[in-house]
């Protein structure tokens, strides 16, 4: 089983829709979690950290489910500009080599 | 604010040629990283530098060397390029280490080895 797994998509959703992505991780010792956004042929950019209690930033909500070992990203009222690939990042305790990037989930918001 | 600056943006090499990818950050970050990104795979760590004066291997270090020239600059060298090194390379930096802080990435270098 891969350390971090994401559905590569693409997820094609109409403008205004709500869409959610999950990312599962295999190591229960994982301690910090992030979502990054990567536009086509661009660098990844930090979207938000994922806190145990869940956190929200505008239309974006991130949640952590430690029991089932997954994190989620919910996007409400999707905009055309949300079209991108969303990478989940999981950090196991123990140093720099323990940060694992998922392959990303591609989102295409359709007019 | 420049953030993380990488050069060059594009490069084509012949097998066996060498090159150095340059990276500089102006955020006073301690930690710097080199990643490669290949289709269908997550970003993979090549080398990292926890602080000025230290470097360590990541997941895929073979065929690469690095130099942490000072706190700002971290370069990646390919001594004898191979087609398997065709990839997109990203430099990144973070305020602290161990992955507990978010990374700031450079804009990437698209390298093709023929």
Description:
The complex is a heterodimer of chains A (111) and B (114). By secondary structure, chain A is mostly beta strands. Chain A has strands spanning 4-6, 11-14, 19-25, 30-38, 44-50, 55-57, 60-65, 70-75, 84-92, 99-101, 105-110. The mean pLDDT of chain A is 93. Chain B is built from no helices and 11 strands. In chain B, strand 4 (31-37) and strand 5 form a beta hairpin. In chain B, 0% of the residues lie in helices and 48% in strands. In chain B, the strands form 2 sheets. In chain B, strands 2, 4, 5, 6, 9, 10 and 11 form a 7-stranded mixed beta sheet that branches. A 4-stranded antiparallel beta sheet of chain B has the order 1-3-8-7, with no helix packed on it. The A-B interface holds A 4, 8, 31-32, 34, 42-46, 49, 87, 89, 91, 93-104 and B 31, 33, 35, 40-45, 48, 50, 56, 58-59, 90, 97-100, 102-108.
Summary keywords:
heterodimer, A: 111 residues, mainly beta, six-stranded mixed sheet, five-stranded antiparallel sheet, 0% helix, globular, B: 114 residues, seven-stranded mixed sheet, four-stranded antiparallel sheet
Low-confidence stretches of chain A: none
Structural class of chain B: mainly beta
The SSE order of chain A reads EEEEEEEEEEE
Residue share in helices of chain A?
A: under 10%
Quaternary state of the chains: heterodimer
Describe the structure concisely for a colleague.
The complex is a heterodimer of chains A (111) and B (114). Chain A is mainly beta.
Fold topology:
The complex is a heterodimer of chains A (111) and B (114).
Chain A: E1 4-6, E2 11-14, E3 19-25, E4 30-38, E5 44-50, E6 55-57, E7 60-65, E8 70-75, E9 84-92, E10 99-101, E11 105-110
Parallel strand pairs in A: 2-11
Antiparallel strand pairs in A: 1-3, 3-8, 4-5, 4-9, 6-7, 7-8, 9-10, 9-11
Chain B: E1 4-7, E2 10-13, E3 19-25, E4 31-37, E5 44-49, E6 56-57, E7 64-68, E8 74-78, E9 87-94, E10 104-105, E11 109-113
Parallel strand pairs in B: 2-11
Antiparallel strand pairs in B: 1-3, 3-8, 4-5, 4-9, 5-6, 7-8, 9-10, 9-11
């Amino acid at each position: 089983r891969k350390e971090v797994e994401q559905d590569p998509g693409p997820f094609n959703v109409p403008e205004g829709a709500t869409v959610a992505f999950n990312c599962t991780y295999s190591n229960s010792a994982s301690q910090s979690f992030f979502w990054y956004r990567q536009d086509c042929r661009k660098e990844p950019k930090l979207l938000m950290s994922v806190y145990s209690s869940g956190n929200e930033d505008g239309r974006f909500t991130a949640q952590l489910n430690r029991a089932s070992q997954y994190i989620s990203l919910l996007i409400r009222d999707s905009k055309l500009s949300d079209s991108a690939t969303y990478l989940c990042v999981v950090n196991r305790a123990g140093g720099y080599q323990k940060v694992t990037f998922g392959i990303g989930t591609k989102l295409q918001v359709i007019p | 604010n420049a953030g993380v600056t990488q050069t060059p943006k594009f490069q084509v090499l012949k097998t066996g040629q060498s090159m150095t990818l340059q990276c500089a950050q102006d955020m006073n970050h301690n930690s710097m990283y080199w990643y490669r990104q290949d289709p269908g795979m997550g970003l993979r760590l090549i080398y990292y530098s926890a602080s000025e004066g230290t470097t360590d291997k990541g997941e895929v270090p073979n065929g690469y060397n690095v130099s942490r020239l000072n706190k700002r600059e971290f370069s990646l060298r390919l001594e004898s390029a191979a087609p398997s090194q065709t990839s997109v390379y990203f430099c990144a930096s973070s305020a602290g280490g161990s992955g507990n802080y978010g990374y700031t990435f450079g804009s990437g270098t698209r390298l093709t080895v023929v």
